[in-house]
Design brief:
Elements (H helix, E strand, L loop, with lengths): L7 E5 L2 H4 L7 H7 L15 H15 L3 E5 L2 H4 L8 H16 L3 E7 L5 H5 L8 H16 L5 E6 L1 H10 L11 H25 L4 E13 L5 H24 L22 E14 L9 E4 L17 E2 L3 H9 L6 E5 L10 H17 L4 E6 L19 E4 L4 E4 L1 H12 L4 H7 L13 H9 L2
Parallel strand pairs: 1-2, 1-10, 2-3, 3-4, 4-5, 5-6, 6-9, 9-10
Antiparallel strand pairs: 6-7, 6-8, 11-12
Helix pairs in contact: 3-5, 7-9, 8-9, 8-10, 9-10, 12-13
The chain binds beta-D-glucopyranose (BGC).
The site of beta-D-glucopyranose has 10 residues, from loops.
């Protein structure tokens, strides 16, 4: 399965998860308040602020040609209106370091974290938030624009809204405030659109998009109208709201009752970034009023990576890429898969996921979809938000205490695909001597264990 010349094979990362030493954003406050479920500390994370280049060497050694990172707003504007050129200088070194290694950078402006002062002003719901974010975007692009052409304004507005305002898993920890969550998503879209225009003003040739998290919500019993209805409602809210804002400037019924239309959002993206991980099953259940009466769960027999502190991470579901691509194709923009991965410390299921995701992508490109790159989440195990160090997503295993790194087998496999720009039968034979199961067979978790140990 060969890919088009210039296809990007990358990894994605985020500032707070890798840099270490971030003490001035709302996530460090969340950690200080004891809200990390595992009780872990972010600490020096992967120590990127001092030594990102060590991981860039690994990315090069593995054979990647792209890397997405994010810049930490709380370093660049530690107090309102006080800008730190040295922080930008460090990011310049990082981007230069990537380019020197033949790795194309993609920079994200907001990956869940922002300065504590911004949070204290009300976050994205504050009246001046859009203007503040636009100023930040201008400062970053003025400082880094000669080293980067691809910009991601926002990472996962839908996750930020849902986990921060409906499920209470992310700061500010609000629960059940669905209308507020919808307003937050709309506010993020306005900030995104302002940044989109500002970036183009400063750098006309820039390519600007956002990273959209897409989840497949499967009715638990497709024969039962209640399950179908609630799965559709949740999918509409989670998967479609931001897309609709980009496409037609409104949230669609009934969510548009909470927020006015905004024509000026339409078309403010040059590409769509997709972050795709999981499938969840949804059953209608009156006990889950705060979740629109949807009981969202993962059946125990579904193929999965490692379990979170309190709940399963999600069903590992490579076909989700197909579902997501089909949904966003209507925007008529190039597509990048900007995240895809699985928490899997033992690397028992990640190789299976990678092979099936790559096969899915190949097929979609054959069908005519304009997919320009695949970025695996992630390069080196990093600090997984509320789960801390509990969930390990890296192609490279990290011991955070010693900072020792070990490339996992999936890293070698992914690197072979990236270097050759293809997935070949020799690679499959080398990594899966007994063959690899196609994604559409319902794997048991025990199969996955077995599948990889047969190598
Ligand atoms: C986020 C990452 C996170 C990953 C794994 C994505 O939704 O963008 O920051 O680490 O999922 O949970």
């Amino acid at each position: 399965m060969s890919f088009p010349p210039g296809f990007l094979w990358g990894v994605s990362t985020a500032a707070h998860q890798v840099e270490g030493g971030n003490h001035n954003n709302q996530w460090s406050a969340w950690e200080a308040a004891g809200r990390i479920k595992s009780g872990d500390r972010c600490g020096q994370a992967c120590d990127w602020w001092n030594h990102a280049e060590r991981d860039f060497d690994l990315a090069q050694e593995i054979g990647l040609n792209a890397l997405r990172l994010s810049v930490e707003w709380s370093r660049i504007e530690p107090e309102p209106g006080r800008w730190d050129p040295q922080a930008v200088q460090r990011y310049r070194e990082m981007l230069q370091g990537l380019r020197a290694r033949g790795i194309q950078p993609m920079v994200c402006l907001h990956h869940f974290t922002h300065p504590l002062w911004f949070e204290e002003q009300g976050g994205f719901l504050a009246p001046e938030a859009v203007q503040r974010f636009e100023q930040f975007a201008r400062y970053v692009v003025a400082g880094l624009g000669d080293l980067c052409q691809h910009w991601v304004t926002m990472n996962e507005p839908n996750v930020y809204g849902a986990l921060g305002y409906a499920l209470g898993e992310f700061p500010p920890g609000k629960k059940g405030q669905i209308v507020t969550a919808v307003r937050v998503v709309k506010a993020l879209a306005r900030a995104h659109a302002a940044a989109y225009r500002a970036i183009h003003e400063l750098q006309p040739e820039a390519r600007v998009g956002w990273a959209h998290n897409f989840i497949v919500f499967q009715p638990a019993n497709p024969g039962f109208a209640g399950d179908r209805w609630v799965a559709k409602l949740i999918a509409e809210l989670f998967n479609e709201s931001f897309l609709r804002l980009m496409e037609q400037g409104n949230l669609g019924f009934p969510f548009n009752l909470a927020e006015r239309d905004a024509e000026d959002l339409v078309g403010t993206c040059d590409f769509v970034g997709l972050n795709v991980y999981s499938r969840f099953h949804v059953a209608f259940d009156l006990r889950f009023a705060s979740q629109l009466f949807g009981h969202v769960f993962v059946p125990p027999h579904a193929p999965q990576g490692d379990h979170g502190v309190e709940s399963p991470y999600g069903e590992a579901f490579p076909e989700a890429i197909r579902v997501a691509v089909k949904r966003v194709a209507r925007l008529g923009k190039p597509i990048y898969i900007l995240e895809n991965g699985v928490p899997d410390a033992q690397d028992r299921i990640r190789p299976w996921l990678i092979v099936n995701a790559v096969a899915e992508l190949h097929q979609l490109i054959q069908e005519g979809h304009d997919i320009r790159g695949y970025f695996h989440w992630t390069l080196t195990d990093n600090f997984e938000w509320s789960e801390g160090w509990r969930l390990r997503f890296g192609l490279v295993a990290l011991d955070p205490a010693t900072q020792q790194r070990t490339i996992r087998q999936s890293g070698y496999l992914y690197g072979a695909i990236a270097r050759r720009n293809e997935l070949s039968s020799e690679m499959i034979a080398q990594h899966f001597p007994s063959g690899v199961e196609p994604a559409n067979r319902r794997l048991q978790a025990s199969d996955c264990q077995y599948l990889w140990s047969r190598r």
